[in-house]
Amino acid sequence: MQLIPHSLFGRLVLVLLAGLVVAQFLSTTISLSERDRALFSFSDEQWAQRDAAAVELLNSVTPEEQQRIASILTTPRLFVSVSSDTPVAGKADEQAADFQKLLQKLLGPERQVRVVVAQITPAQVAQARAVQPGSGPVDVPRQHSITEVRLDNGQWVSFDHPRPWHVSDRPWRLLLSLAVLLVSVILLSLLAVRWVTRPLTTLSIAASELGRDLRRAPMPETGPTEVRGAARAFNDMQTRLVNYIEDRTRLLTAISHDLKTPITRMRLRAEMLEDESLKEKIVRDLQEMENMTNATLDFLRGLEVSEAPQSVDLMALLESLQQDAVETGRNVSLQGSISKEYNGRPLALRRCLDNLVNNAVRYGKRAMISVEDDGNAVIIRVRDAGIGIPESMLEKVFEPYYRLEEARSQAGGGTGLGLGIARNIATLHGGTLVLRNHPEGGLEVVLTLPRRHDFRS
User: Fold this and answer.
1) pTM of the predicted model, to two decimals?
2) What pLDDT is recorded for position 454?
């Protein structure tokens, strides 16, 4: 299970949400703790004042009246008794000590005061609930606070009341306000993170489109300073790449044009040779030079295609290629169908498919073309009947001028640019071109052309 998101947006959201949740949890804990402390302090003051007033009242009456007043002061939450018994057993904790100091301050330093905490027995619970039967059920905590004060006549008055050590009722208004604050901050954080990371997404999309079309529309140079700087640098890089490709294309075009004249002269002179064997070799070399020059130009045209995209009948294009191949004596078969026209560049697509078919026939004796159309993409497979190539070389054969003659037919010829040109044209259309050794033998080229591709000029 992946706990850490892969995207920058997901990681920023994770960090912000984790920080906000922890901060809100700590803030809520501290707020509730302070609330409980304040309530306990207020409750202690009330109990201390009530106990002090009761002690003053009991000191002003006779012992008989003290018992009667004690019974009057007894409530479901407070049990008051007057006796000469020694103080009850119990333990004093920090809260009991604080309450004792508060009551001692009200009664004076000479008054004997003792505050302890004891466990409530079932009999005491029943007694507390039976004091006033008509008052309804009484919730008695597990512990109770026993305050004992020595009266002026030597008697001890005991104030026994349950003491909640935690506030039972939840501060729903406080919790609701904290929840609203948390949700508001989370929503604002999500908007802020999306606002910050959106330029990175735009830059990633632009870089991906640049690999397919060097003449795509420039990135908008808007937003924060850093984003504008990155967009400006990206647009400058795109401009330099376009200029570089154009300069290289013009250079090679000029070289090709300039080479035609000496090649033509050399061919005319070769025709004048009496040695037929020598003449044949020279003509073949000149033809190879011309083929290499034209193939290089075709390779560059695969990178920089100027024709506008339009509706193309791919099925008719494949049938035309098959018919031309059959008329020249080559073994090419075609199966499958395409449901509707494809939006693309017809000349570039014809060059791509022609290279794939020629490679299959040249190196694998025949070309078996199969077509699939699922509505989202057109998949064209071209399989030959050759011996295939090593798995480690399936990508290297796309490199310019790379020829794997030792694994293919030695009589094939070619310049090593056909597959590179075909892949460039596939990439131009937003598609892919991959090679694989077919399980039943031969090499298979799989061309995938998505129907939804945004051509930018």
Assistant:
1) 0.47
2) 58
